[in-house]
Fold:
Amino acid sequence: MQQGMQGRVLLELENIGCLKRAELDFKPGLNIIKAPNASGKTSLIKGLTSMFSDKIPPAHILALNDLNGRVKLRYGSQIYEKIFRRTPSGSVVAGGSMLPFADHRAFDACVALAETGVVHKITGGEAAFREYLENLSYGKYYSMVISAAQELVNESSRELAGPSFRKFEALPLLLTELTNLHIERDQIEERIEKLKSAHEVEVQSLLKKMEEKVSAFSRAEMGLSELERTLAREQEGEQQLRSFLELADDSAKVATHIKDGIAGSKERQSKIKREIAEQKGLLKSLKNEVETLKKQIEQKRTKEVRGSKELVREINRLNKAVILKEEEIQRAERFPSDDSKYPERLVIEVRKEMMKKIEWLDKVIEHFQDKYMRRMTSARLRFNRNVNKAFDELELKGFEKVFLDQDFALHLVRENSIQQPVETLSASEKLTISLILMLAAKETFLPDFPLFIIDELTLSYDPERFRHIVNYIRRRVPYVIVTSLVSSGVGGLQIAYEA
Amino acid sequence: MSSWKQSFEIVRQELELAKRKKQALDELLAKKRMSELTYEHLEKALTASILDLEAHQRSLADKMTSRADELEEQVHVLEWVLADLEVRRAGEEVVEEAYSGQKKTIVLGISATKAELDEIKMSLEKIPY
Structure:
């Protein structure tokens, strides 16, 4: 880094926190700011932090009763200034320039503020460390992309479970219902056909019967004519015999023969007449039968087939049901016209588009998950290396190994290879490990950042160990700024330097 | 009903229903009650289902054909055993009582086997290939 004015950094503060006005001159090495309680140590740190990170909200930096505040920093030959202004609505806005090496990550890796919970980082469990390394390694951006893509997938999935899609998914079921209606209709049509066939068989049988009767009638008529002709011939024969009898008066023998002939003819005539009468009776009966059959056939042909009326009614009902089902199917394949997103569009089309989108998003998620895993694994391994390097170089007794496992859970292994839960550490040990982890984070992710700030962590802390750690940090970071509480006898902020 | 016959009947009915569905689907397209896209989507699934059912039916038919061959062989063997029994009876190698009992059993076996064979053949005739 460039260091002008023999590497000095001049900081001017105005209306920052409880500080009305303060000027501080930082030098390369250790800068210890000594002051009693409520004299502005944390305000000073917040003001300085605002020049390279916007993690602390402006409203937490500007003095409560002031409208304007200012942080001015001379670094090398350049001056950087940040202005804080309270708006009429009461909110605080900040503007101006930041340091050239400003990096929002520096707040997490280079500023050990008691109030931001440096200790909480190690007691926060695996989620806290994952988040910590996500922020520092930019893995957060990948996880944000993954979350955004996942949210889009979820949104599309929710949409795919909507009513129009559900109706579309029910199409195979509707098709089955339509097919069942077709089958039912076919079965009834078959029954009607059977009834009609049976009816036609009955009509044909009657027609055949009638034909037989008509034929019998004709035969009977012919028989009657024949009998009538025979009778006429017999009567004619009798007449001839009678005329012969008149001529044969004197011949008793001949007359007797003729009389016998006449008697025989009469007898035959009587028989024929009886037969004629019988034949006439038969004819009358046949005529009646034919008439009856004719009527029956006529009735069969004009009347509806028995039982078909109900079946035809059923067919009509089924035809209506088929039309309704077809309309239901037609509706199910499209979005309704009043749909806000896809009016009248085919569901299959939209579904395909959404499936394609989900497929693409899944690929994005897979791609970024892979990148995220690689980045986070690399970040964790580099971080672990720097943690162990710090432990080795500091020669801190008591711990053999400190590392984050693949689930980002912190493991503390004592010299006797026994794992110690973080919660069981003493307050002093928690601070030591917190500082070392922070320093390892800085070495891993912000190796060139020139500042390391420790605010009032000396409370309830072993001064010798603290000094040991601070000296270690000083060897790696150009400017180390530490605030320290002193008795109330000392007035204002006093700075002590150690090169 | 034997299990193979039950399976065969179920597959036959399902196949018939699937083919009727395909027919109904074709009608919907012809009547312009359905778009080409939706038709293709449903037709694809239906055709796959028909092909599956046909494959299942073929596999059942193969099993049934094989069973029919077995039964024909069985009938042949039983008829041969019956003929042998008749020869032994003619040669007075078997007493009348034993002959009657054995004959009854063999004839019963032949008729049961033939009945099963006929059932299988009737079912196989229903397959359109």
User: Anything to note?
Assistant: Chain B touches chain A at residues 17, 20-21, 23-25, 28, 31, 33-35, 37-38, 41-42, 45 (CB under 8 Å).
